[in-house]
Design brief:
two-stranded antiparallel ribbon, alpha/beta
Length: 177
Protein backbone atom coordinates (compact mmCIF):
# COMPACT_ATOMS: atom_id res chain seq x y z
CA UNK A 1 0.00 0.00 0.00
CA UNK A 2 1.20 3.50 -0.81
CA UNK A 3 2.21 5.82 2.02
CA UNK A 4 1.02 9.38 2.47
CA UNK A 5 3.94 11.65 3.41
CA UNK A 6 3.64 15.17 4.77
CA UNK A 7 6.56 17.45 3.92
CA UNK A 8 6.60 20.80 5.68
CA UNK A 9 9.28 23.44 5.48
CA UNK A 10 9.81 25.89 8.30
CA UNK A 11 12.16 28.59 7.14
CA UNK A 12 13.27 32.12 7.88
CA UNK A 13 13.07 32.84 4.17
CA UNK A 14 14.12 30.06 1.87
CA UNK A 15 16.11 26.90 1.41
CA UNK A 16 19.63 25.98 0.46
CA UNK A 17 20.92 23.46 -2.08
CA UNK A 18 20.98 20.54 0.36
CA UNK A 19 17.33 21.06 1.33
CA UNK A 20 16.43 21.49 -2.34
CA UNK A 21 18.24 18.23 -3.19
CA UNK A 22 16.43 16.37 -0.37
CA UNK A 23 13.08 17.63 -1.61
CA UNK A 24 13.90 16.60 -5.18
CA UNK A 25 14.99 13.12 -4.05
CA UNK A 26 11.85 12.80 -1.93
CA UNK A 27 9.73 13.74 -4.96
CA UNK A 28 11.33 10.97 -7.02
CA UNK A 29 9.59 8.49 -4.70
CA UNK A 30 6.08 9.87 -5.23
CA UNK A 31 3.69 9.94 -8.15
CA UNK A 32 0.88 12.00 -6.64
CA UNK A 33 0.76 15.35 -4.84
CA UNK A 34 -2.21 16.12 -2.61
CA UNK A 35 -3.29 19.70 -2.04
CA UNK A 36 -6.19 21.49 -0.46
CA UNK A 37 -8.06 24.08 -2.51
CA UNK A 38 -6.50 27.09 -0.77
CA UNK A 39 -2.93 25.89 -1.24
CA UNK A 40 -3.56 24.72 -4.81
CA UNK A 41 -4.67 28.16 -6.02
CA UNK A 42 -1.16 29.59 -5.44
CA UNK A 43 1.00 26.44 -5.46
CA UNK A 44 0.06 25.10 -8.90
CA UNK A 45 0.37 28.37 -10.88
CA UNK A 46 3.59 29.34 -9.06
CA UNK A 47 5.40 26.09 -9.83
CA UNK A 48 4.01 25.94 -13.38
CA UNK A 49 5.54 29.37 -13.96
CA UNK A 50 8.89 28.18 -12.57
CA UNK A 51 8.72 25.04 -14.75
CA UNK A 52 8.20 27.22 -17.83
CA UNK A 53 11.43 29.12 -17.17
CA UNK A 54 14.51 26.86 -17.62
CA UNK A 55 16.72 29.69 -16.32
CA UNK A 56 14.86 29.89 -12.98
CA UNK A 57 16.94 28.89 -9.94
CA UNK A 58 14.16 26.50 -8.83
CA UNK A 59 13.53 25.11 -12.34
CA UNK A 60 14.39 21.49 -11.50
CA UNK A 61 11.97 21.27 -8.58
CA UNK A 62 9.38 23.37 -10.42
CA UNK A 63 9.45 20.90 -13.31
CA UNK A 64 9.01 17.93 -10.96
CA UNK A 65 6.18 19.59 -9.04
CA UNK A 66 4.44 20.44 -12.30
CA UNK A 67 4.93 17.04 -13.94
CA UNK A 68 3.71 14.95 -10.99
CA UNK A 69 -0.09 14.55 -11.11
CA UNK A 70 -1.92 16.49 -8.42
CA UNK A 71 -5.13 15.75 -6.56
CA UNK A 72 -6.91 18.76 -5.10
CA UNK A 73 -9.50 18.16 -2.40
CA UNK A 74 -12.37 20.62 -2.55
CA UNK A 75 -16.11 20.56 -2.13
CA UNK A 76 -16.31 24.18 -3.36
CA UNK A 77 -14.51 24.14 -6.73
CA UNK A 78 -16.94 23.80 -9.62
CA UNK A 79 -14.39 23.31 -12.41
CA UNK A 80 -10.78 22.24 -12.76
CA UNK A 81 -8.63 25.09 -14.06
CA UNK A 82 -5.23 23.38 -13.74
CA UNK A 83 -3.35 20.98 -16.01
CA UNK A 84 -2.33 17.56 -14.67
CA UNK A 85 -4.76 17.96 -11.76
CA UNK A 86 -7.85 16.10 -10.58
CA UNK A 87 -10.43 17.66 -8.26
CA UNK A 88 -11.81 15.28 -5.63
CA UNK A 89 -14.94 15.88 -3.58
CA UNK A 90 -16.50 13.89 -0.80
CA UNK A 91 -15.29 12.13 2.30
CA UNK A 92 -11.57 12.78 2.70
CA UNK A 93 -10.90 9.53 4.59
CA UNK A 94 -12.51 7.35 1.94
CA UNK A 95 -10.86 9.23 -0.93
CA UNK A 96 -7.39 8.96 0.65
CA UNK A 97 -7.90 5.24 1.31
CA UNK A 98 -8.79 4.77 -2.37
CA UNK A 99 -5.67 6.68 -3.45
CA UNK A 100 -3.45 4.66 -1.11
CA UNK A 101 -4.76 1.36 -2.51
CA UNK A 102 -3.93 2.29 -6.11
CA UNK A 103 -0.72 0.88 -7.55
CA UNK A 104 2.14 3.32 -7.69
CA UNK A 105 4.67 5.24 -5.71
CA UNK A 106 3.99 7.11 -2.47
CA UNK A 107 1.84 10.23 -2.18
CA UNK A 108 3.02 13.56 -0.77
CA UNK A 109 1.06 16.44 0.71
CA UNK A 110 2.25 20.02 1.10
CA UNK A 111 0.98 22.81 3.33
CA UNK A 112 -2.44 24.17 3.93
CA UNK A 113 -3.00 24.15 7.67
CA UNK A 114 -6.70 23.27 7.58
CA UNK A 115 -6.27 20.55 4.95
CA UNK A 116 -3.22 19.02 6.68
CA UNK A 117 -4.96 19.29 10.07
CA UNK A 118 -7.84 17.27 8.67
CA UNK A 119 -5.47 14.60 7.35
CA UNK A 120 -3.74 14.40 10.73
CA UNK A 121 -7.04 14.31 12.63
CA UNK A 122 -8.20 11.35 10.54
CA UNK A 123 -4.89 9.49 11.01
CA UNK A 124 -4.14 9.47 7.28
CA UNK A 125 -0.49 10.59 7.27
CA UNK A 126 2.05 7.76 7.38
CA UNK A 127 5.31 9.76 7.50
CA UNK A 128 6.14 13.29 8.57
CA UNK A 129 9.06 15.23 7.08
CA UNK A 130 9.54 18.49 8.96
CA UNK A 131 12.45 20.53 7.62
CA UNK A 132 13.67 23.51 9.60
CA UNK A 133 15.85 25.74 7.49
CA UNK A 134 17.54 28.55 9.42
CA UNK A 135 18.98 30.05 6.22
CA UNK A 136 17.86 33.59 5.72
CA UNK A 137 18.38 35.26 2.39
CA UNK A 138 17.51 38.93 2.17
CA UNK A 139 13.96 38.95 0.83
CA UNK A 140 10.59 40.59 1.18
CA UNK A 141 9.51 38.28 4.01
CA UNK A 142 8.81 40.36 7.13
CA UNK A 143 11.24 38.57 9.48
CA UNK A 144 14.20 39.25 7.18
CA UNK A 145 13.01 42.29 5.26
CA UNK A 146 15.54 44.63 6.86
CA UNK A 147 18.58 42.35 6.49
CA UNK A 148 21.37 43.80 4.39
CA UNK A 149 23.25 40.47 4.10
CA UNK A 150 22.36 36.80 4.11
CA UNK A 151 22.15 35.18 7.55
CA UNK A 152 23.99 31.87 7.66
CA UNK A 153 23.91 29.84 10.85
CA UNK A 154 26.05 27.01 12.23
CA UNK A 155 24.39 24.24 14.22
CA UNK A 156 26.09 24.02 17.61
CA UNK A 157 23.70 21.79 19.51
CA UNK A 158 20.88 19.42 18.72
CA UNK A 159 18.80 17.68 21.36
CA UNK A 160 15.75 15.51 20.98
CA UNK A 161 13.17 15.16 23.73
CA UNK A 162 11.07 12.06 24.44
CA UNK A 163 7.92 13.91 23.36
CA UNK A 164 9.38 14.35 19.85
CA UNK A 165 10.43 17.98 20.15
CA UNK A 166 13.86 18.77 18.76
CA UNK A 167 15.95 21.66 20.04
CA UNK A 168 18.23 23.16 17.43
CA UNK A 169 20.69 25.77 18.67
CA UNK A 170 22.61 27.89 16.17
CA UNK A 171 25.32 30.55 16.14
CA UNK A 172 25.75 33.01 13.33
CA UNK A 173 28.43 31.63 10.99
CA UNK A 174 30.51 34.78 11.27
CA UNK A 175 30.29 34.70 15.09
CA UNK A 176 33.47 34.66 17.17
CA UNK A 177 31.89 32.31 19.72
Amino acid sequence: MRKLKLEMHISLSGWDDQVMNFTIENLKNVDCILLGRKTAKDFIPHWAGVANNPKAADYKIGKLLTDIPKVVFSNKLKANKWDNTTIVKGDITEQIKILKKKKGKDIIVYGGYSFVSSLIQHGLIDEYYILLNPLSVNSEHPIVKELKNDLRLTLIKCKSFECGTVLLCYNPKNSNN
